[in-house]
Design a protein that fits this description.
Layout lengths: L28 E7 L3 H13 L4 E6 L30 E3 L5 E3 L21 E6 L3 E5 L4 E4 L4 E9 L3 E3 L3 H4 L3 H4 L2 E2 L4 H12 L4 E4 L3 H16 L5 E4 L12 H13 L3 E3 L4 E6 L4 E5 L4 E4 L1 E4 L3 E3 L4 H4 L10 E2 L5 E3 L2 E3 L4 E5 L3 E3 L4 H15 L11 E5 L5 E6 L7 E6 L13 E6 L5 E6 L23 E8 L2 E8 L5 H10 L6 H6 L6
Parallel strand pairs: 1-2, 1-8, 2-5, 8-21, 10-17, 11-12, 11-17, 12-13, 19-22, 26-28
Antiparallel strand pairs: 3-4, 6-7, 7-8, 9-18, 14-15, 15-16, 20-21, 22-23, 24-25, 25-30, 26-29, 27-28, 29-30
Bound molecules: flavin-adenine dinucleotide and nicotinamide-adenine-dinucleotide (NAD).
Nicotinamide-adenine-dinucleotide binds next to helix 5 and strand 24.
């Protein structure tokens, strides 16, 4: 634990240190109580504070760190020049824009000691680290911690986030195999994986989603820079990011990732894992065998809703997460924000979103409502991802590849917008029944009208473009592919909630050639 080294701090069974050393030292009552100490929690604190300047806010977090952001864990932190230090101090990293910052939202000094929160004249935020909330009694405004300690509140927010899933074959494996398998969500996971990377070990990532794909690119970069080990990425699907990207783009992305040095193995799963002295022997269902020093399982996560049942709170059967209304209320004076919130979006219906900006936006809204605003969730949050130097994208709304899509692309080199009559249009229907239209807005591609990427034939260069996701012929999601600073426009288009006759015309607003 880097945050608390006081000699008298209590060491739990795991060897980690709670702060304070006993729950008895926590306040018995707080005006604002937040369960979970992640992004949504910290965003809620900021908005509570801006509406109630002397607010006293207590976060109860079962992590042993102060609140921090997760996105750099799979991206920027891997681009920090290598030193011989075991850890990167304060997890500092260079943002793409060039400036440097820490993963932590605020330094330690920003926080009030939980023991002093009650008497703090100007209020502030205190974090009880290493404590878990087991139950919320919404009727009596009381939370119960894992050791039975009770705290009453005026307003409470549940912001418990998600926990990474594992695969049964690893969860049920022998300890010697399990010790070579990890999931990836925290700075401690970063430290552990960085040690393997620094030792030039071979790393196998399982999963084609956000973490798997981002991490594979980052590790391949790290490995190239440091003359490191092999980076494998194994998944069942036929390309990267297939839940978000239409099949043709998913496969194109996979080809780019291979160029970056990731050894991508699609259409495959791990059949068995056995251990020798040093490494794991992984047998795949396609007949391949990989020798790897560590497996990183990146197969999605599930919302932390353990406290739902004892608290008599509803969990959504399909989407998971605590069910809340458009104002993010589960019960009166009890809100849920971030990954764990299954909320009602008045425009797009019931949703659960697992992205950074949503946790900021929903945390902010919950904070406002905890101070009396009574506002609904109407600001569409966005998400972004980077897959090495050649691919960056931003999205908004429902970016779900099972929906019909229309993608309009420009070659990176093209500067002059052409008339829509110059466009090449191809309609594809995938095996899962999803329908995708591809429009390449560049004359020089007209010789590939009959391209067939299933046969690995020539493909257009999907270097830059915009993809519209449609439901009932209306645009419900927009993905901006290597196109930046257009989220506001995409948000306006989604909010218009109307049918467009010519999506080419809509695409022109995105100035994909400039
Ligand atoms: P969390 O950040 O998970 O915080 C929840 C906290 O609550 C945790 O500290 C948890 O330990 C604690 N907790 C849980 N249960 C209890 C309990 N009973 N008592 C006390 N504490 C509890 N999103 C993007 O949009 N862009 C990105 O580039 C991006 N990159 C990511 C990279 C990685 C490696 C990961 C893991 C995620 C990334 N995300 C990204 C997703 C984003 O980080 C999450 O959506 C966001 O962290 C959710 O915030 P949250 O506050 O809801 O949950
Ligand atoms: P994900 O949902 O993005 O991807 C999960 C992937 O797991 C699937 O695409 C599939 O390949 C695989 N999978 C699922 N079940 C499987 C099974 N039974 N066997 C084999 N493979 C299986 O989840 P993730 O990549 O683990 O990321 C975790 C969370 O972090 C997600 O909520 C994600 O949105 C978030 N995150 C977001 C970003 C971003 O927005 N840029 C970056 C990193 C993480």
């Amino acid at each position: 634990d880097g945050d608390n080294n006081s000699a008298d701090a209590k060491r739990g069974v795991s060897g980690l240190v709670t702060s304070p050393d006993s729950s008895e030292k926590l306040p018995k009552h707080v005006p604002y109580l937040i369960i979970g100490g992640g992004t949504a929690a910290f965003s809620a604190f900021r908005s509570i504070k801006s509406n109630d300047a002397k607010a006293k806010v207590l976060i109860v977090s079962n992590e042993y760190h102060k609140p921090y952001m997760r996105p750099p864990l799979s991206k920027e932190l891997w681009y920090t020049p290598n030193t011989n230090e075991k850890t990167i101090k304060d997890y500092r990293f260079k943002q793409w824009a060039g400036s440097e910052r820490s993963l932590f939202f605020e330094p330690d000094e920003f926080f009030v000691d939980p023991e002093k929160l009650e008497e703090s004249v100007n209020g502030g935020i205190a974090v009880a680290q290493g404590f878990s909330v087991q139950k919320v009694d919404a009727q009596n405004h009381t939370v119960t911690l894992n050791d039975g300690y009770k705290i009453t509140y005026d307003e409470c927010l549940i912001a418990t986030g998600c926990a990474p899933k594992n695969l049964p074959m690893f969860r049920d494996a022998a300890p010697s195999v399990r010790e070579k398998v990890m999931v990836y969500r925290t700075p401690d996971d970063f430290d552990r994986l960085r040690r393997y990377a620094a030792e030039k070990r071979s790393i196998t990532i399982v999963g084609n989603g956000f973490i798997g794909s981002e991490l594979a690119c980052s590790l391949a970069h790290y490995s190239k820079e440091n003359d490191g080990g092999k980076i494998y990425q194994v998944f069942q699907e036929s390309g990267n990011m297939s839940k978000v990207l239409p099949n043709y783009l998913s496969r194109w992305t996979m080809a780019k990732m291979k160029n970056q040095g990731v050894c991508v193995i699609p259409n495959a799963s791990i059949k068995s894992a056995t251990r020798d002295e040093e490494s794991l022997k992984l047998e795949l269902n396609n007949g391949m065998t990989l020798l790897s020093d560590i497996v990183v399982v990146c197969v999605g996560c599930s919302p932390n809703t353990n406290l739902a049942s004892p608290s008599k709170l509803e969990v959504d059967r399909t989407l998971g997460g605590f069910v809340v209304n458009a104002e993010l209320e589960a019960r009166r004076n009890l809100y849920v924000a971030g990954d764990a919130s299954c909320f009602y979006d008045p425009l797009l219906g019931r949703r659960r979103v697992e992205h950074h900006d949503h946790s900021v936006v929903s945390g902010k809204l919950a904070g406002e409502n905890m101070t009396g605003a009574k506002k609904p969730y109407v600001h569409q949050s966005m998400f972004w991802s980077d897959l090495g130097p050649e691919i960056g994208y931003e999205g908004i709304g429902l970016a779900d590849s099972s929906l019909p899509t229309v993608g309009i692309f420009a070659l990176p080199s093209a500067t002059d917008a052409r008339s829509s009559t110059d466009n090449l249009t191809v309609n594809r229907e995938e095996d899962d029944g999803s329908k995708h239209t591809i429009i390449v807005d560049e004359k020089s591609n007209s010789d590939v009208v009959t391209w067939d990427d299933d046969a690995h034939g020539e493909q257009p260069d999907y270097g830059r473009g915009v993809i519209f996701y449609l439901k009932n012929e209306k645009i419900v999601g927009v993905l901006m592919w290597n196109l930046f600073s257009r989220v506001g426009l995409a948000r306006t288009i989604i909010n218009q909630n109307k049918k467009y006759d010519d999506l080419n015309e809509v695409a022109k607003l995105f100035e994909i050639h400039s």
